[in-house]
Specification:
six-stranded mixed beta sheet, binds adenosine-5'-triphosphate, about 30% strand, 12 strands
Length: about 280
């Protein structure tokens, strides 16, 4: 099959659990070969969105397409092409690492056992060790190998770095994601760590309270957000610093027109952009 079109299209998807809104009119398009970081606080809706992509949850409103298919009505067409690492990493404890690999391989015709062995070596996983005796970090690595070794077209990783030590996070996980993208495959990973998303992804989607507040290429996002210090009434006590999106000159002109003096404009950091966009900012 020649792959064409976006790998993921989420169109106005909403989801409630009782009266709790987990997703609200979420739109997301993921093109082939992109690494997208889905970033948000605990409870923001990241896992719920990933579960929709896997067809584990049906959209109560809106639609989800993965490889152009509905993952709920066509799981066979979708799941074999996805590698998934769940947040709980629920791996069978009674198996050895080697058995886990052979067991997982049975589900995937394209399982690459040479690659699986290499990844286990890279991760210093002993194939004879029982899964239940693995440390948290080793458990996380075993889950990653199981998600990766069939070379899926789409890799969905729910908080992949949780449980990994900083060296594995930086050196191994980052390298894996870049290789996957270079091979034209696609990655969506969730995280609550902004610096990690900044380092590892080409694109990001900021989710908060079930809403996507910001999405797009990292460079584009950075280029269009400014930290602006304005002074009202000509006194330093009237100074405020704001984060605004738009064209630098146009924003400055707009503030001047409304009677504020623009004291300084500089590029905003991703931290500042996120804080300004989320409910934390509204609360303060
Ligand atoms: P975390 O980083 O803590 O895993 P998350 O961003 O993945 O958070 P979700 O697990 O998607 O967030 O949860 C979104 C919201 O939906 C939360 O308020 C959560 O309590 C609620 N929720 C998720 N699953 C269920 C469920 N099965 N039943 C009831 N509420 C749920």
């Amino acid at each position: 099959m020649t792959p064409t079109g976006p790998v993921v299209v989420v169109d106005k998807v909403s989801r409630r659990f009782g009266d709790k809104i987990a997703l609200a009119e979420v739109d997301l398009v993921l093109e082939r070969g992109v690494v997208l970081g889905l970033v948000g606080k605990n409870g923001a809706g990241k896992t719920t969105l990933i579960q929709h992509l896997l067809g584990l949850l049906r959209a109560q409103r809106g639609s989800v397409r993965v490889f152009g298919l509905d993952p709920v009505s066509d799981p066979a067409g979708v799941l074999g092409r996805i590698g998934y690492l769940s947040e709980e990493r629920s791996l069978p404890g009674w198996m050895t690492v080697g058995e886990l690999m052979r067991y997982t391989a049975a589900f995937y015709p394209r399982w690459d056992s040479v690659y699986a062995t290499r990844l286990c070596d890279d991760f210093r996983l002993d194939p004879r060790q029982k899964v239940r005796t693995l440390s948290r970090g080793q458990h996380a690595r075993a889950g990653l190998v199981a998600a990766l070794a069939h070379r899926p077209e789409l890799l969905l990783l729910d908080e992949p770095s949780s449980g990994l030590d900083p060296v594995v996070r930086r050196d191994v996980l980052e390298a894996i994601l870049h290789t996957v993208a270079e091979e034209g495959r696609t990655v969506l990973f969730s995280s609550h760590l902004l610096d990690e998303v900044e380092r590892m992804s080409d694109q990001l989607a900021l989710i908060d309270g079930g809403r996507i507040l910001l999405t797009g290429g990292l460079d584009k996002i950075r280029e269009r957000h400014w930290r602006i210090t304005v002074r009202a009434g000509g006194t330093p006590s009237g100074e405020r610093t704001l984060i605004r999106e738009g064209d630098r000159e146009a924003l400055a002109a707009e503030f001047e027109r409304s009677g504020n003096e623009c004291v300084a404009i500089s590029p905003a950091s991703l931290d500042e952009i996120f804080f300004a966009r989320t409910s934390d900012a509204e609360a303060s």
